[in-house]
Structures are given as C-alpha cells and as structure tokens.
Amino acid sequence: MKFSHVYVERDVLNHPTTKKILSAFKKSTVVEIERYGDLFLRPRQNYVIQKKYPNIILAKKRYDFIYRGSQMCENFGIDEFYHTSNVLNCIYTCDYCYLQGMYPSANIVFFVNLEDFFNEVDKLSLDKKIYLSISYETDLLAFEPLTGFASMWISYAMTNKNLLMEIRTKCANTAFFESNEIPDNVIFSWSLLPQEVISIYENLTPSLHKRIMAIKKAIEKGVKVRISLEPIMYVEGFEKIYSDFIDELYKELPLQDIYDFNIGAFRMVKEQAKKVEKLKKTSFVFCYDTEVKDGVFTYKNEEYMKGFVYDRLAKYVSKDKLFIK
C-alpha cells in the first residue's frame, strides 16, 4: 500500500491508532485537516481516477456509529441485524461494487476512534443479542497489517457475549489465523465466485485458490466460516462455469464444516447503478439484460441464476445451511 498523502483530522493527531498508521508512511506527505467531509464529500471529484491513486484520511467518527441492516443484505433469520463501518472505501476495485455510486471520493477513510464504536455496541446490546456486520463497506482483513482493526474488533467481541459479529472478506491473509484466537461469536465470511468471474470483475483481489487456502486455515483453527456466493455475476457459459466452481468447492473444502452459505445475485440501488454506469460505460456489468425492480438494478434472470446456484450447492450441503436473498 502506497499513498502520496495522508490527511489527518486535528482531533485525532495524537490518537494511538493514528500514530501506528502514520508510522507506516514515513515518505507520505501528512496534511492536517479540520473535518474529513471537507475533503471526502466535496463535489466534482473523479472516482475512477482517484481509485488508481487513492490517498487516506484519518478521522474521528462523531455520530451514526451503527445502522439497521439493509434490506439488500441477508440477515440470516436474525431480526436484530445491524452494520457498522469504521473504514469507508476498499483497497480492491471490483467492477460491481456499489461504493462507486455511493461516495463521491475513492479516497479511503479510517475512523480511528474504535473505542467509541465499542461503546455504542455496548449500549445497543445491553439487554439483547444482536448480529453486527462490520465490513460491508471495506475489507478489514485486507487492511489488517496497516490498522489492526480486525484484531481490535475481535478482542472487543470476546468481552460482549450478546454480540454475534461478521467480518466479510476476500482477503487471503492466512497468517492472521495463525496469530489470533477467534471466539465463537465471530464469523468470517468469504466472498467467493468462480475464477473466471473474479478475473473479469474483481480486479486486484486474491485468486479463488488463495481464498480457499485461507478458508482451510481458518477452519483448521476452529473459526466459524461462512461462504458468501455473492454477487452472482453473469458470464458466458454461466451454467458450466458455476457448476464447475461448486464442484471445486466440494473437492477442496470440507463443506460440512462451513457454518452456512449465502447466495445472492448482483443487485444495486437504481441511483447508485446510474452513477456507476456513467463512470464505467464499458464494464461487462452493463453488457447483459438488466432491469429495475422496486428501485433495485439487477439481472432480468436474477431468480434463475440464484436458483441454479442454490440447486447445485444443495447437492453437497444441507438446505438448512443455505440462505438465498
């Protein structure tokens, strides 16, 4: 990770996490700022160009720490479903990512004051059990060598038995599971797609093989692992490619030891999809038959695609472990 500039809010200049991150960028230019939004949210930024040369912003989160889970996401049958983000934007550059249409900037914001996030989760889970996803808007594990955020969240989860926490990732950081104890109330959810799809849509991400190796290590260490077959993307030769993919998972992984599976097709809020299409007019995302249903942009044959993957996976996995969105 190389960044020419690091922007730091004055309020967190002396925060221990700020100092840790800055120590990794001794050659970067450090610029003090008042509020991250002045830089991150300013109009007329070019997301595509910034994504090639992003900078980072270290900031303090001051409000809206936790959100109700989106209807676009699977809640796995849990009513008290929430999500939070102490990092905005991701190091990967997936063509289908909704963040391209959500934020005006591709710069990466790190909210360093995790202690305030933990206090808010304490309040929310004081008298009830909750399910909290902490990495919908980034890949915490990919940033772990820089920030240590995943380790900090896991340490916190050990102190809160009313919390079931999900960390979603595409990362292949096997060393993380060698050096960290993962409690039972933490689920690591790997996003997996066929290598043919990864090669087209998921620029800079680890290969399917490397992700499988990371999953094997996590299972070996007793970690609860979820596999998220999402977003299912259309590709020429769809049926054979996805059939071979699921057969490969069966051969390479002990599927009976996977906590559960999430199946979902590509979907994006209509307004975000419009922005992404303007940014990436030549992307394969927009080359196949699509439609807008209830304000959501998706494939016309979305139900068929999900059903095909579900039926294929059900050959190897008990249906009570399969969740389809």
Do you know the CATH architecture? Answer: Alpha-Beta Horseshoe
Q: Please compute the radius of gyration using only Cα atoms.
A: 20 Å
- The helix content is 25-40%
Query: Which shape, going by the Cα principal axes?
Result: globular
CATH class placement: Alpha Beta
DSSP helical segment count: 13
User: Looking at CATH, which topology would you report?
Assistant: pyruvate-formate lyase- activating enzyme
Strand content: 15-25%
Oligomer: single chain
Order of strands, main sheet, comes to: 4-5-9-10-11-13-14-18
Contiguous low-pLDDT stretches (5 residues minimum) are: none
Structural classification: alpha/beta
Q: Biggest sheet: strands, sense, closure?
A: 8 strands, mixed
Give the distance, in angstroms, between the N- and C-terminal Cα atoms: 34 Å
Q: Name the average pLDDT.
A: 93
